[in-house]
Specification:
Layout: H1 2-11, H2 13-50, E1 57-60, E2 66-67, E3 73-74, H3 77-82, E4 87-92, E5 95-101, E6 115-120, E7 130-134, E8 142-146, H4 147-153, E9 160-164, E10 172-181, H5 186-189, E11 193-198, H6 199-206, E12 210-211, E13 214-218, H7 224-235, E14 240-243, H8 244-291, H9 293-301, H10 306-343, H11 360-387, H12 390-394, H13 405-432, H14 439-478, H15 480-491, H16 493-531, E15 536-540, H17 548-556, E16 561-568, E17 575-578, E18 581-584, E19 586-588, H18 592-595, E20 602-603, E21 612-616, H19 617-623, E22 630-635, E23 640-649, E24 658-661, H20 662-668, E25 676-681, H21 687-698, E26 704-708, H22 709-752, H23 754-762, H24 767-803, H25 808-811, H26 816-843, H27 846-851
Parallel strand pairs: 2-18, 6-11, 8-10, 19-24, 21-23
Antiparallel strand pairs: 1-13, 1-14, 3-12, 4-13, 5-6, 5-9, 7-10, 8-11, 9-10, 15-25, 15-26, 16-19, 16-25, 17-18, 17-22, 20-23, 21-24, 22-23
Helix pairs in contact: 1-10, 2-8, 2-10, 2-11, 2-22, 8-11, 8-16, 8-22, 10-11, 13-14, 13-24, 14-15, 14-16, 14-24, 15-24, 16-22, 16-24, 22-24, 22-26, 24-26
Length: 853
């Protein structure tokens, strides 16, 4: 039987080509994903082991301490740590914005704050960057620069640069001594220009009063654990003290968790592609085994048992799956190279152009997945074929009716009822509970899967009526070919439903993504309108903080401007203790009460001023305070503020997370400059006049970056559009395979009905009419799958959006143009997929068609 299976695969290769390719694409997606993530994980671990490899103990803030800004420790703590017995060397992580320029005055970055200065430790064991060329800064005029900037701007060893820190500082010359790889610090430093000097120079230029953390090296012979215990004894529970091994393990776990999330997301899409490929294989084996019933009956007559028939058919599917795995592994290798170019330099991971890593696990998964998918697809058709008696198989018979119609109807009804309960329950819970979390969304997703399954189970029962309706409609348009197409579609309901199911799943997913993306975009616009009422935000570069004074004064006298609100902080200087937690305050001018009184989630800013505070709703829950409560904030200099909560802010509010009056902030940090200016438009002023007024005022102020609310919304919506495009691209392979299903099933069905088509031709049906009949049948199948997929996708997209607790107008967003495009593409590609087999059937000679078994 295995020799017969091999002969069937070899001599009927053309019929197995498309299902084999579909399974190969599914294997390629899975294998490519595993290769990409393995390569990125290896690069990540290599980076982590090459940086801070000899770090022994780290001192940092307690994880739960600080809300509102970066976690730092006081600069004075470095001396205390350095004096502990057993500390051979200690280094405080320091970084901040500076202005870097060439000797001719050309800046390295478009905005000064896009250049970050870091301090390089004197001891190489404490370096958290890697020098790829030259050497680390050693003298007061030495500087290093990141290798990406050096390559882009053609900066080499020995070149001179000018650094300026602060608005009242003069540019100081430095000489480039080395090029750095700073990939492991990109989360802190951003994606701009990075320069490095010695620790002493960096602290002096940045006037640092705090460090990100303190890193130490133990004296010779002292273990990390022993040094940690000594530091804990010295510092108590004021700070978190961890060994270098624990830090590296945590960094590896954090990075691996992010990478696993990326891998799991890709594997979900790969799984969808594989499921759709399974539908293609299932349809193919259903048709092939139905066509070989006479052959199967003859095998039974000459002594083959049912078990041998099943083994032969499953062996054929296993061989197909094995060959598909070989092709899929090769395609996956190519896909991995493409994916590494797209994703291989993000999230602080740089694979450096490395070839995809092919682990034995990936090979094993590929060679298991292909045969398993193909064999699972063949199980149902094989069991049906083996149960037919030889006498029944030897005579021509009409296709059987839908099997177990009553049980199928009951199952579909139960699943649909369960889906309704889950979807409605999840939506209601999300919109009524105070803190619903992610559980309602998960419940809605499970309900959506149950509903899709119910539709697929019920579909064969609906095909006869839908086919009759399609026959009447197409009959009026095409005449006899249209009526025949409807009859052909309804004569084998299970095959028609399964063929449409692959397309239905693909279009359901792409429609869900588009509907949720449209709802998210509308929600972002509404959130901005409610919580971001300022028409312009002027970002003040921290390298030149005093630039805001003249700008604010000039704006306040312009009639087109409604209100001008200055904001200071948050920073280490504004840190206070509230209910046992370290929080960094933001000082906001009292004019915010007039500029944005209702830009809150709860309460009001109308009474905002000295003695008042507005904080993010999430932070309020952590502090267990509500509107109207009073709280006490104590600073390190002993200042105590008694504050009354007047409003809770949305996470999108620019005022959060902990906004106090500018007068109150001055008591804690009297010299803190303005870091941002919020501007509203005057009533009656036109948009053009207001825009012109703002741009005129900030003209000639390179330290001020104006950002309009329209620009902010555009950035968010563009990000959402990019995410939607990425998801649709990943789902595109599933839709492509679904069209394979339509083309392949129709081709095999035409071959199966060759004698019938020949008889119709002999009775007077023309070649054109036969081709139209077959294309109309394909059109019906594609239309059925597309319509079901789009209706399900829109409904389920609305349900998920509702579970996100977005507004009703956002939830009911309808991406009409995109959905119309999906429908048109489905119909066009579907017709193209059916055109070739229909044309071939119409060109076949009648005598050969009638002679075919």
């Amino acid at each position: 039987m295995m020799r017969l299976a091999w002969a069937n695969v070899v001599h009927r290769a053309s019929r197995l080509l498309l299902p084999g390719l579909a399974v190969a694409l599914g294997v390629a997606f899975v294998a490519g994903t595993l290769m990409v993530t393995d390569t990125m994980r290896a690069a990540l671990l290599d980076q982590l082991t090459r940086t801070s490899a000899t770090l022994d103990v780290v001192v940092e803030r307690q994880p739960q301490d600080v809300a509102g800004s970066a976690r730092t420790v006081p600069a004075a703590l470095l001396d205390e740590v350095a004096t502990v017995d057993g500390v051979a060397a200690a280094h405080g992580q320091v970084w901040g914005p500076v202005k870097a320029a060439r000797p001719d005055g050309r800046t390295l970055a478009a905005a000064p704050s896009r250049t970050q200065l870091i301090g390089i430790a004197d001891e190489s064991q404490l370096w958290d960057v890697r020098f790829v060329r030259g050497q680390a800064p050693a003298g007061p005029t030495d500087i290093a620069i990141d290798r990406d900037t050096a390559s882009e701007q053609r900066i080499g060893i020995g070149d001179r640069l000018l650094l300026t820190a602060g608005s009242d500082a003069r540019p100081q010359p430095y000489t480039v001594t080395g090029l750095m790889d700073v990939d492991t610090r990109r989360d802190d430093l951003g994606d701009g220009v990075v320069v490095g000097t010695t620790d002493a120079v960096a602290v002096q230029l940045l006037r640092a009063t705090a460090f990100g953390r303190i890193e130490t090296v133990a004296a010779s012979g002292l273990s990390q654990e022993a040094l940690r215990d000594r530091l804990v004894a010295q510092l108590g529970d004021r700070y978190a003290v961890r060994t270098g091994a624990a830090v590296r393990a945590q960094e590896a776990r954090d990075a691996a968790r992010d990478l696993d999330g990326f891998s799991n997301a890709l594997l979900v899409f790969a799984g969808i592609t594989t499921i759709v490929a399974g539908f293609v294989a299932y349809n193919t084996f259903s048709v092939l085994l139905a066509q070989r019933l006479r052959e199967t009956a003859l095998l039974r007559c000459v002594g083959a048992t049912r078990r041998q028939v099943r083994v032969g058919a499953l062996g054929e599917s296993a061989l197909l799956g094995f060959l598909a795995s070989v092709v899929g592994l090769v395609l996956g290798l190519g896909a991995a190279r493409v994916l590494l170019r797209v994703f291989g330099s993000g999230e602080g991971i740089d694979v450096g152009g490395a070839a995809p890593l092919l682990e034995p696990r990936t090979v094993l998964v590929a060679f298991v997945l292909g045969p398993v998918v193909a064999m699972l697809a063949a199980v149902g058709p094989t069991l049906r074929a083996s149960r037919i008696r030889p006498v029944e198989a030897l005579r021509d018979a009409a296709p059987p009716p839908v099997r177990s119609a009553g049980r199928r109807l009951r199952t579909a009804t139960v699943l649909a009822a369960l889906a309704a309960v889950l979807v409605v329950g999840g939506v209601v819970a999300a919109r009524t509970l105070a803190q619903p979390g992610r559980l309602p969304i998960a419940v809605v997703v499970v309900g959506a899967l149950a509903l899709i399954t119910a539709v697929l189970i019920f579909a064969p029962l609906a095909i006869p009526r839908l086919g009759s309706a399609a026959g009447r409609i197409l009959g009026r348009i095409l005449g006899h070919p249209g009526r025949l197409a409807g009859e052909n579609a309804r004569r084998n309901p299970e095959r028609t439903a399964t063929t449409a199911a692959a397309l239905c799943i693909g279009l359901t997913l792409v429609t869900v993504v588009s509907t949720i993306a449209a709802a998210a975009t509308r929600s972002i616009e509404e959130d901005f309108a409610q919580n971001f009422p300022f028409a312009y935000t002027l970002r003040v570069d921290s390298a030149t903080p005093t630039a805001s004074t003249d700008v604010m004064a000039a704006l306040q006298v312009r009639p087109e401007v409604g209100a001008v609100v200055g904001a200071r902080g948050p920073s280490s200087a504004t840190e206070v203790i509230v209910n046992g937690r370290a929080i960094r305050m933001k000082g906001v001018d009292d004019t915010v009460a007039r500029a944005a009184p209702t830009a809150v989630a709860e309460g009001s800013l109308r009474g905002f001023g000295p003695g008042k505070v507005a904080l993010e709703a999430k932070l309020a829950r952590q502090l267990r305070v509500e509107v109207g409560d009073r709280l006490t904030a104590r600073s390190a200099n002993g200042t105590e503020l008694t504050l009354s909560v007047v409003a809770l802010l949305d996470a999108m509010s620019p005022l959060g997370p902990f906004a106090v009056s500018g007068n109150d902030l001055t008591r804690v940090a009297p010299a803190l400059p303005v870091s941002a200016v919020y501007v509203t438009q005057a009533s009656g002023a036109t948009d053009a006049a207001f825009r012109r007024a703002v741009t005129d005022v900030v003209a000639g102020q390179p330290a001020i970056t104006p950002v309009s609310s329209a620009q902010s919304i555009k950035q968010w919506t563009e990000a959402m559009s990019t995410l939607r495009s990425l998801l649709l691209s990943l789902l595109g392979l599933s839709v492509l395979i679904a069209f394979f299903s339509v083309a392949n099933t129709l081709s095999l069905s035409i071959v199966e009905r060759t004698r019938e088509s020949g008889l119709l031709r002999a009775l007077g049906l023309t070649r054109r009419q036969l081709s139209r009949t077959l294309m109309a049948e394909g059109f019906f199948v594609v239309t059925l799958g597309a319509a079901a997929g789009i209706v399900l996708g829109v409904g389920l997209g609305w349900a998920v959006a509702a579970a996100m607790n977005w507004s009703l107008t956002a939830v009911l967003s309808f991406p009409a143009a995109q959905i119309a495009l999906f429908a048109v593409l489905a119909l066009v590609v579907g017709l193209l997929a059916t055109a070739l087999p229909a044309w071939r059937a119409g060109r076949s000679p009648i005598i050969l068609m009638l002679a075919r078994e």
